[in-house]
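Crash report, auto-generated. Payload:
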Amino acid sequence: MNFSVQVKVMPLKELLDPQGKAVMGGLQNLGIKTVQDVRIGKTIQLQVDASSSDEAKKIAEEASRKLLANPVMEYYEITIN
Amino acid sequence: MNFSVQVKVMPLKELLDPQGKAVMGGLQNLGIKTVQDVRIGKTIQLQVDASSSDEAKKIAEEASRKLLANPVMEYYEITIN
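Recovered output after restart:
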């Protein structure tokens, strides 16, 4: 069976996110002043061939650990849709 | 009130995603061969000051339209958590 797995990779909360800060500055220049913080990460959509959603999640977990996320700077969340 | 709004920006389905293709190649080199497709987009977490979640969503919608997403190449989805 084919599962669509979403991996969200975000910068750790303890770290500065200069890309997010730049976007926040851009929003304020456009007149959107009610946004108080912006953090930017990645969304990775995987199409995984697996026999169960548990197995699909395990594969996504392995992919995140080995390639998609850098644990020194990022954390990840896996959801199956 | 403070709302945490998530904007997911993904490349349009009709378009090639070379970054995703590169990651898929990387996964296969690592021995993860059950992943059949990879697409990579952005996740933007906004902290929005608004009186209701509807208003927060409207602000995120405006931000996405004006700055966060390029409608020629990307679509976006807004969720409030």
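Post-recovery validation: Residues 53-68 of chain A form the longest helix (16 residues).
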